Amino acid sequence: MHAFESLDVFGGAAGLDFANTVDGRGTDRPVDYLPTYAELAAWSAYIGLVDTADAERLGRHDAPATLRTALSLREAVFQVFHAIGQGRPAPVAALDEVRQRYAEATAAARLAPDGAGAFTWQFEGDDPDRAWWPIAVDAVRLLTGGPLDRIKVCAAEAGCAGLFLDTSKNRSRRWCTMDGCGVDAKVKRQATRRRNRT
Fold it and tell me: Coil, helix or strand for 192?
């Protein structure tokens, strides 16, 4: 079992889920769930960006440079969507990083029918970068097609900073997950009410 399998997948978009592979960003001890290239390749299969057989082949690469590129993309994606989720302008340098990685990814892709009446970028082969190419494409797709007004940052006070698409009807979702940060917030509210009654 991979460590990232214990991490909730709640972003609603591959780019946001990728950014969320660092847990507890606002704490003193954030946890990185993708410390190696093999973990990156396995995670890409875990969320359906590559199939399992491809991930196994990719994971055999010793690709520290590719991992550094992917993690740099991850930080840029986080910075861009964290800013958007807080109603701030996206950092120019982070946007440029996402654009550059998107250009590299699409240069290596081919356009092919997606089976639903449209075309999509498809990736083949065993280039180690294939593990992050679809993430760059997904991030730009979300940036250019939205819905950007539904991007939120987890409201947990404990430093979660998880990113997600709020697909609730009334746009009232505040937490990355109700079972995690949502429960923690509820417990804190109840504790505060009890203290205030005494």
Answer: helix
Determine the Cα angle at 4 with ends 75 and 180, to 5°: 90
The Cα 122–Cα 89 span in angstroms is 31
Strands (E), 33-188: 110-113, 119-122, 151-153, 163-165
Pairing of strands 151-153, 119-122: unpaired
Query: What is the pLDDT averaged over residues 127-136?
Result: 97
Instruction: Look up residue 96 and give its two tokens.
Output: 């440029």
* Architecture of the domain spanning 3-197: Orthogonal Bundle (1.10)
Peptide bond before residue 35 is cis, with ω within 30 degrees of 0:
no
pTM for the whole structure: 0.90
CA distances 117 to 49, 112, 113, 114, 120, Å, are 20, 11, 7, 7, 10
Count of alpha carbons within 13 Å of 38, Cβ hemisphere only?
A: 8
Q: Could you report the per-residue pLDDT of 21-32, keeping only the tens digit for each?
A: 999 898 899 999
- Please count the other Cβ atoms lying within 10 Å of the Cβ belonging to residue 51: 10
Residues 39-94 pLDDT 10s: 999 999 999 999 999 999 999 999 999 999 999 999 999 999 999 999 999 999 99
CB-CB contact of 77 with 18 (8 Å): yes
Model confidence over 102-111: pLDDT tens digits?
A: 999 999 999 9
What region, left, alpha or beta, does residue 26 occupy, with left being phi > 0 and alpha being psi -120 to 50 degrees?
Answer: alpha
Structure tokens at 151: 């991007």
